[in-house]
Amino acid sequence: MPSESLRWETLQALKNSPKGKISFDPFWLERGEPLLAGCKDSPSLSPIAGVILERLSSAPLQKSSSFLGSRSGDSSPVLSEVSISSTGSVADVSARTAAFSAAASVKNEREQSLSDKVKEESPEADVSGVSSPTSLPAISLLSPKAMEMAGCIIKVQEEHREKAKLALRVRQEMQEKLVAAVASAESEQLKRFEELMELKQRQEYQSMRDMMERETKESIGRQEKLKEEQRRRITLVNLRLREAEQQRLREAELERQRQAEGRERLRSLNSIQEEILQLNQLLEPSTQTKTDLPPASLSSYSTRGNQLCSQVSEVVRKTAEGNFPSLEDMTVAERALHEMRALIRLMQEEAANVREKKKKEQEQEEERRKQAELLAKQEGEKKAAQLAKEKAQRKGLQNSAEDVTLKWYKDLQEAASRCAQSFEQLSSAKDGQTKKLKLELQKAATIPVSQIASNSGSQLREIFDKIDKLLSGRPVVSGGKSVSTSQHPQGLEFASYKLAEKFVKQGEEEVASHHEAAFPIAVVASGVWELHPQVGDLILAHLHKKCPYAIPHYPPMKEGTPVDEYQRILGYRVDDSGVEGQDSFLKRMSGMIRLYAAIIQLKWPYSSKQGPVPHGLNHGWRWLAQMLNMEPLADVTATLLFDFLEVCGNALMNQYRSQFWKLILLLKEEYFPRIEAVTSSGQMGSVIRLKQFLETSLQRRQISPPRGQLGSGFWRS
Where in or outside the cell (predicted)? Predict the structure, then answer.
């Protein structure tokens, strides 16, 4: 039939098309190739298929379409759209075929993405739910062979689909087993983790318990150590208590011994005091009525004996306060006793020497009487000549001091020489201990004088007390050591001599540089002078020796006296480099005159004696009057008068009032022109100062108090 031939031609055309060249291989699955790779491709027709389809009639084509639909009931509805009208053109068929291919590819992509989502969301879903590959539109032919081939293909596809479902199911089971295994492993791992955490907690708990046990053991150990330390300390305290008790017993025993020794020393001290008092009675002038000693020697012995008694009485006074005498006190008392015995021996030896001298003097007295008768006539002639000379001198000014003043000056110098000779043994000692004692005594006498200043009254009082103790024979501390004049029989004379020398040296140096320093030095010197007159005489002797104008006296130059020696007598310093300059000389003389002018007007404010100053203003009046009776010296007289009046003028004015102003007027009108006459033009400085002072004083009828004078407020400081 022509229709069947057309169908076979169509089939032949399909066979020759790329789709028709697919070869079926039952071993695709074993090789791992995709089963439906060729079925998923979009079908395409050859251009000749359009010509073939035009020839087919519409009815047979419908039969074929219905038959194909009955053969494959699960074919896609898209296959119905593949039936192409024979009336359509080839271009329409091509267009519809392209649209069908595009629709099929879009549908496949949607189904593939949907199946992937279903697998991801529910891997355990039934395999039947997985969509099968989209059936490609096919044209069913009426050829039995073709139908058989199509059936075989469908059957193979069904088998492969079942195998795929089975494989998918197996895979799902494996996945479920794997998930179950993983879940089980995770559960086991979680259990192991929990066990590990429990183990760590147990270990930490155990470590905490171990640590607490260790701390408990350590605490117990520390408590044991503390208990042991407490026991050890208790033992030490007990030992110390026992030692303290033993020490107390030893101290009690020592105290008993000290009391016994103190009582013994007290008995010895009482016996020493008794013996010293008995020996001192032998030195009293009242008991020496039949002795041949001179009163001066008796007085010195008595003074020294009283000083030794005072030393012992000072030691006994300490014991009266309830204290036992110390070893040092006993040493002082024993030394005083030895010195008292030595004084008695010296007095007895001196008395014997005096008796021998008296015998010799009595023998020589007769010879002197004979010579006196011969010299009587010569003396009368000399006295007459001397009286005539004195009358001649009274008509004008003198060149030297009066005889009474010169005798007083010589007596002071002789007393100072005797004092220096009395401690010759101490001064020239060669043994180390005596030299050391001499040095300590000199320091104890001179250092306090160097410390005198106008800082406060309490300081001056301390210095005065220290000097008074030294001169009284009591021990004083000097340079950290205790020293006393009673340590040597010549200690008092040595200390007095050095003390007086230091006072004058302070005037020569300190007062010369600082005029206000004259008053604190002078008030201490005046207080010492009042209690110890021997020191005052030594001060005058040193002052007159260094400054003869303080007498006043202008020593004449004797024949045969070298110039250097005469300048020393006048007060100049002479050394290997020559004689000092005039300015330095005047400065030193000024300092000593200022010190002397301060001494004669000051009295120690804490003195227990009532009365005037030991060397008072009457000596200042005498000095000023004698200065005006002597010929002036160039530059010297004006300087000394100005310094003296500036320091002492106010005190003399208050003491002598109108008589003083008469003397000042005499000085201004009669004596001052003589000073100007002997003064050269280069030495007018001191003359001008004196003139201005006199004019101001006479004009104001008043002399101001000197600068640096110590007021009542000073002694309260």
Answer: Cytoplasm; Nucleus, Nuclear pore complex
